[in-house]
């Protein structure tokens, strides 16, 4: 089985640091940096990635990649921060999906250059006869080798092995890893918000409402939505709430908080709630269409490993592989909702104002429940998804019926 690798990002694993003391020469060369790192002034970390071929077979399996590092120039007995061993476990590797990359982020090391190697330990899980055949070494492991990522060909390619440099720990979030563009999520989400507000302003003006006040309410609602998205994500990950505070948002929380604040703001300003919500729906889902591309390029909300012809090589910021592109599918679903909503707002007057917005949200919820089944993370409840989808379907049918039953389209 072919196995390969390269320098990149993220770690979520256990670290075993080799014991020992500094040699006198090594202590003299790194004294200032070591003291600063130990005092917490600028803790150092490094990021590395390796990949292996998923092999052939019939059953998914688990793979453990062991990273070993040593600081360049360290001599004698290695100090606590001069070497490391770190294992990364990859669950659910699907044979036949081609190369699978594994990224690790290592903390609490001395600054400088490091040589890092990696090896795959014996695959586990599933029937032994179904596991992929591998040429293992005498210790039951397989060496991995460095590679590089090509954006032009959208593929991993062979690269030279070279030392890695440590960085201040917060900057390790911006290390390059396969198929991930750091910061793209924030840029594309901001672009989606601006596009959504622009579309809303145009449509609100067409229904002869005060666009300036509506945009002010929308801006406040968007900020509240971000807070709601973070709170929702933390609530779903209470066991790891410290990590959840640092990364992760949930779009359900955004929609709930933003809509609640928007309704309150519109009521306080005595604006027509139904027509404003209808005029907001197209821009909202055009924004989701753009923002989900940021999720794809950042590696969040990733799909499962798959051998499907529709699978695309992408990353979840730790493991890169051929996956179901759930972010792009959700973007397409949002676009398919935004366009009919736009046409409905422009060329018809619903019998009950606000039902275009309600129908759009119900359609999005219904589509999202189907896509969540294709995501990498498993559902916490087997009943929540079907019940939510059933409720969304009922709301969708009721909204469309009340909005357009017996009403002929007419231009504004």
Structure commentary:
By secondary structure, this protein is α+β, with helices and mostly antiparallel strands. The chain has nine helices and 14 strands. The strands form three sheets. Strands 1, 3, 6, 12, 13 and 14 form a six-stranded antiparallel sheet that branches. Strands 2, 4, 5, 7, 8 and 11 form a six-stranded antiparallel sheet that branches. It has a two-stranded antiparallel ribbon with strand order 9-10. Helix 2 (184-206) packs antiparallel against helix 6 (273-298), helix 6 runs antiparallel to helix 7 and helix 8 (355-372) packs antiparallel against helix 9.
- Rg value: 26 Å
Q: Average pLDDT, to the nearest integer?
A: 83
Total helical elements: 9
Residue runs with pLDDT of under 50 for 5 or more positions: 1-30
Structural class: alpha+beta
Total strands = 14
The tally of domains stands at 2
Largest sheet: 6 strands, antiparallel
Strand content: 15-25%
Q: What shape does the CA trace take?
A: elongated
């Amino acid at each position: 089985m072919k196995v390969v690798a390269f320098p990149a990002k993220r770690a979520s694993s256990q670290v075993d640091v080799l014991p020992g003391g500094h040699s006198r020469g090594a202590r003299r060369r790194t004294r200032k940096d070591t003291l600063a790192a130990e005092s917490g002034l600028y803790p150092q970390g490094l990021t590395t990635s390796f990949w292996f071929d998923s092999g052939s077979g019939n059953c998914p399996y688990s793979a453990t990649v062991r990273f070993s590092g040593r600081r360049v120039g360290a001599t004698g007995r290695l100090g606590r921060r001069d070497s490391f061993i770190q294992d990364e476990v990859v669950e659910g590797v699907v044979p036949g999906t081609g190369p699978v990359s594994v990224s690790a982020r290592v903390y609490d090391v001395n600054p400088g250059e490091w040589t890092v190697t990696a090896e795959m330990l014996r695959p586990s899980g599933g029937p032994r006869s179904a596991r992929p055949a591998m040429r293992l070494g005498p210790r039951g492991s397989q060496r991995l080798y460095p590679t590089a990522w090509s954006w032009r060909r959208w593929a991993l390619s062979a690269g030279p092995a070279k030392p890695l440099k440590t960085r201040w720990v917060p900057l390790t979030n911006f290390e390059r890893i396969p198929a991930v563009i750091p910061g793209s999520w924030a840029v594309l989400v901001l672009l989606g918000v601006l596009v959504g507000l622009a579309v809303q302003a145009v449509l609100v003006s067409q229904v002869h409402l005060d666009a300036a006040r509506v945009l002010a309410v929308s801006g406040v609602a968007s900020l509240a939505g971000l807070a709601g998205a973070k709170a929702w994500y933390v609530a779903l990950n209470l066991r790891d709430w410290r990590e959840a505070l640092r990364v992760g948002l949930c779009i359900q929380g955004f929609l709930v908080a933003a809509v609640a604040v928007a309704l309150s703001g519109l009521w306080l300003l005595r604006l027509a709630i139904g027509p404003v919500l209808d005029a907001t729906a197209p821009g909202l889902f055009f924004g989701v269409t753009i923002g989900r591309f940021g999720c794809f390029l950042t590696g969040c909300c990733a799909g499962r490993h798959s051998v499907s012809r529709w699978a695309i090589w992408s990353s979840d910021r730790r493991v890169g592989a051929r996956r179901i592109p759930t972010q792009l599918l959700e973007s397409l679903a949002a676009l398919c909702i935004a366009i009919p909503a736009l046409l409905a707002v422009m060329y018809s007057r619903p019998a009950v104002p606000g039902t275009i917005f309600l129908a759009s949200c119900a359609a999005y919820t219904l589509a999202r429940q189907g896509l969540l089944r294709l995501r990498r993370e498993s559902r916490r409840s087997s009943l929540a998804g079907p019940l939510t989808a059933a409720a969304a379907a009922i709301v969708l049918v009721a909204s469309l019926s009340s909005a357009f039953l017996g009403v002929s389209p007419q231009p504004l």
